[in-house]
Amino acid sequence: xxxxxxxxxxxxxxxxxxxxxxxxxxxxxxxxxxxxxxxxxxxxxxxxxxxxxxxxxxxxxxxxxxxxxxxxxxxxxxxxxxxxxxxxxxxxxxxxxxxxxxxxxxxxxxxxxxxxxxxxxxxxxx
Length: 126
What we know:
This protein is mainly α. It has helices at residues 2-22, 42-76, 96-106. The chain is elongated and about 85 Å long. The termini are far apart.
């Protein structure tokens, strides 16, 4: 049911965009020729497109509310997936100085270049 309403929502949205794009910016409607008394006269087209826009917009908003309510209802019936819970690593010693002394004794000293660096290539001269 949810998928059907979602597809219907997409179709109504596309129709709404199409009806809005057909209208003239001044509200004149299609503006195509025809007799003034015909069905699709400038006045008749404007009235038809205005009504179609109102109906499609109302259907779009109504379906949006229904779909949101269905999504909330579906999400409350599910439990939270806890399979990706990760345990926190143990915390080190409380004294930061003793921790720094232990890590510096265990780690080797970084290599220091023996000569001045060449500014163009970044290589060290010997």
